[in-house]
Amino acid sequence: MEANRAISNEENICAEKEVDLKGILRILEKQEGRGGLIAILEEIQAEYGYLPEKALRIVSDRTRRSLVDVYGVATFYRSFSLKPRGKNLVCACVGTACHVRGAPRIVEELEQQLGIKAGETTADKEFTLETVNCLGACALGPVVVIDGHYFSKVRKSRISQLLDEARRGFDKAQPGKDKRIFPIDVSCPHCNHSLMDETFAIDGYPSIKINVSFDHADGWLRLSCLYGSYNFSTEPDIGVDTVVRFHCPHCRVELPSTSDCSMCSAPMVPMLVRGGGIVQICSRRGCRNHMLDLL
Amino acid sequence: MITLRINGLDVSVEEGTTLLEAARFFGFPIPTLCYMEGLSPYGACRLCVVEIGEGPSAKLVSSCTYPAEEGLKVRTASARVLRARRMVLELLLASCPQSKTIQDLASAHDIRQQRFRQEYEDCILCGLCVRMCEEQMMAKAIGFRNRGEKRDIGTPFDVQSDVCRLCGGCIYVCPACQLRCTYTEPEKAICGGCANLIPPCLEKEQFDDMMCYMNPCVACEIDKKFEKK
Predict the structure, then answer these.
(1) Smallest Cα–Cα separation from A228: which of A279, A193, A264, A270?
(2) What is the ipTM score, two decimals?
């Protein structure tokens, strides 16, 4: 146990982000009034990759819950981790259906290739391997989830390829290879003028150019046209959580919002997709909520 | 007032009374392990099972958590109830054989041996200490952690809690550890030194395989850490 503690202390020092009171307080403020402890913990975990001891103490202090309760919830749910996790999280399902379909062999192979046991993190902090008890996709077993990407009917032979892909990063995956990432061509819903900008490329494709304004600042915003990519560049510096207004650079009309974001309740901004359809993106910086309706 | 029939006796009790309280009030003994007056009922040990209803719809419920209902027919010692209780006791014996409370209950139920793989746990997760800490001592220093087979009781992060006052209430109510001071080997049994020191749950890791949680023990002066190596 003492040896374990020493290691976890070391890991704390190596952790990328220092736990600061401000960051936790910002999350708590955002969640205030909604009352959910799990939502708070989820957000902290999204921020730091795990639940640092200091953060839990701050949460219990500020929300007037006893530390025992907070700790109990944090250790009860499998999705929470009290130990720092690696850059890539590999989850292998070992539920009954996946087990029958060969999950133990998949886990064994993952353990062998990564050189760690389930529940551990590689020394270079690249991978954390975890097992989960069911992901609800039993017909597709064995299921492996890497960084939020689901892989079904995984075979032993496919694992090294999956790990390689994870090392390279799924976000950089080629649009041709990955069917979930594809370029779209959008236009203004008011004047139907194309918003594509050939002169400025993001992800190797023409970008979507929109004018934005917020508070007293304005300027251009260029988004990647790849559906599934969140890369963008802006002229004004837009702080995280700022809700911005989108204007068409051609007709100057503000893109009319018809619905609110289901995650952060900021207005969703619609754009027409060439070929029929509407894509809506959340107008809050940092919120990645989006919807694509193809006709 | 609610009227119900316990073991054929028509009784009336106030609304909100549990079956256990009603049965005990009218003199029907029901064994319990995780129940204690003054603490909220928890229904963890299942020793207090009683049979309610009639015929094929009769079912076993834990009497400590089941409120009295109008016209309910309760049997506190039917063959089915006794069989269930004996099974529970055998399982408890299998996990925590050194507990005097469990031994006594088992012998009172005429159990001479148990059929399961023998383990030597020092906790049966009855939650008495957790409720004692929270409800009587107003401290909330210890609580349940993890889940499934890893579930245990202890302080957050395994360090002594800021709100713990070392009152020892948790040790006092524990049905598994009256013999906490008993060294695992009989000849070294009962040194009696640890009457009221750091609650054992605080430093569980250090005292993994023995029932005495003090180091070094003030009475027998055996340095457990040293001896382990």
Answers:
(1) A279
(2) 0.75
Residues B102 and B170 in one domain: no
The predicted pLDDT at position A3 comes to 42
In this structure, is residue B92 part of a structural domain? yes
For chain B, which ranges sit under pLDDT 50? Answer: 179-202, 204, 206-222, 224-229
For residue B137 the two structure tokens come to 């001592």
Tell me whether residue A31 is in a domain. yes
Residue ranges of chain A with per-residue pLDDT less than 50: 1-15
Number of domains in chain A: 3
In a domain, A17, yes or no: yes
Among A122, A145, A172, the domain-final residue is A172
Shared domain for A203 and A285, answered yes or no, is yes
Looking at the fold, whether B158 and B70 belong to one and the same domain comes out as no
- Structural domain harbouring B40: 2-108
- Count CA atoms closer than 13 A to A254's CA, side-chain side: 12
- Residues of chain B found within 8 Å of residue A71, distances taken between Cβ atoms: 143, 145, 156-157
Question: Does the CA dihedral A78-A83-A88-A90 come out positive or negative?
Answer: negative
Mutate to test the interface with B, among A75, A79, A94, A134 (most CBs of B within 10 A): A75
When divided into structural domains, chain B yields a total of 2
Range of the domain at A46: 2-76
H or E segment to which residue A26 belongs: helix A21-31
Res B144: pLDDT: 92
- What is the DSSP track for A96-107? HHHHHTTHHHHH
Give residue-wise pLDDT tens across range A65-91.
899 999 999 999 888 989 888 888 899
Q: Give the model's pLDDT for residue A67.
A: 92
Asked if residues B34 and B128 have their Cβ atoms less than 8 Å apart, the reply is yes
For B140, the token pair is 């909330």
**Residue B182: per-residue pLDDT:** 44
Residues A10 and A99 reside in one and the same domain: no
Which chain A residues contact residue B144 at CB under 8 A? 72
Q: CA-nearest residue of chain B to A60?
A: B156
| Per-residue pLDDT reduced to its tens digit, A33-53 | 777 889 889 888 888 888 999
